[in-house]
Amino acid sequence: MPLDEDKYPGETGRRRFVKGVVGSAALASVGTGGAAAVNTVTSAAGGGGGPTQYMAIENTDGPAPRGMPIVPVEVNDSGELQGIFPEASTETVQGVQRTVAEMDLGGTTYSSQWFQYCGLEGYQGVTPGVEADNYMRASASPPPAYEWQQDVDGDTILTVDMFDDYEEWGNGIGQAGLGKPASATWRSQAEGAKTLPVQVLRSPEVSKMANGEGEYSDLPSNVRSFIDAATDQDFMAWINKCTHFCCVPGYKQLAGSANFNGENAVYCQCHQSIYDPFSPTQVQFVARPRPDS
C-alpha cells in the first residue's frame, strides 16, 4: 500500500529532527533484509485466541517479552481523538462459528486479538461486537500523570488543541520536543466496563516514521505503511499494559527512568522494562482466549 504523501508531507523547516531518538541497535531488531522481525512467545492457545501477529512499540530492555500493542487513531472533523476498533463478523472454523473483529489497515491485519493479554481479553472494550465509545478520554485516576492534565477533567475527550505545543513540550524528564503525552482510557464508558488504559502521544517523530525519514529509513515498508494508516496529525497511541507483569508504565513520567536509559521512552518502574514508541515493530504472541469463547 503506497504511503499517503498528503497526510504526512515531507519534512519542512518547521520540524526539527531529533538525533539519537532511535539508535541503530534498536532499529536492528525491527527488520532484517526489508522484512519485519517477529518475536515469538509460546503458550497454550485456546478458543478465540491463538498465535497472533501485531504491531507494537518495541521492548528494548528489561524482562518484558515483547512490545505493547499499538492502537490505531484518527482525528474526527471536530478535532476529537478516536481509537479505531475493527468491526465484528462471524466466521466458521472447522465447523465451529466464532465472532472475530479484524480489518486491513495499511496492509496489516488489525485484530481485537492484539489486546488479548494480561486479563484484557475479559474486558468489554476488546470484545468483538460490543458497542463501545471509541473516543480517547483523559484518565480520571488521581493524581494526573502529567501536570498539564491537572486542568483537564477525567473522562474529557482529548482534542487536538490540547496538544498544540507538542513540538516544544517538556516536563524536565529527558529531552524536550519529542512530543506531548497524555494518560487516557479507551472503550471504557459502558456500565460495568473495566478501564482500558491507553497512552496517547503527539510527536513530530510520528510523521517521520511514516515517511521513513532520517534514522527511520530502515523501518520495513510494512511497518511504515501501518504507521501511516494508524496515525493522524502526528498522534499515536498504545495499550498501556506492560507485557511482563501487566503493570501500567509511563512515557516521561518518572525522573528515575534516566537511571535505566528510559527518560525518552516508556518506562515500567516495577521491573525496569523499557519500550521505545519511536521503534514500531511487528511481533507475535499467543493471544489468550476470551471468556465467552
TrEMBL record:
- Coiled coil (residue ranges): none
Q: What is this protein called?
A: Rieske (2Fe-2S) domain-containing protein
Keyword flag Metal-binding: yes
Keyword Amino-acid biosynthesis, does the record have it? no
Q: What are the protein's UniProt keywords?
A: 2Fe-2S, Disulfide bond, Iron, Iron-sulfur, Metal-binding
Membrane-spanning intervals of the chain: none
Q: Name one GO molecular function term.
A: 2 iron, 2 sulfur cluster binding
Ranges for domain Rieske come to 232-293
Gene3D superfamilies listed in its UniProt record: Rieske [2Fe-2S] iron-sulphur domain
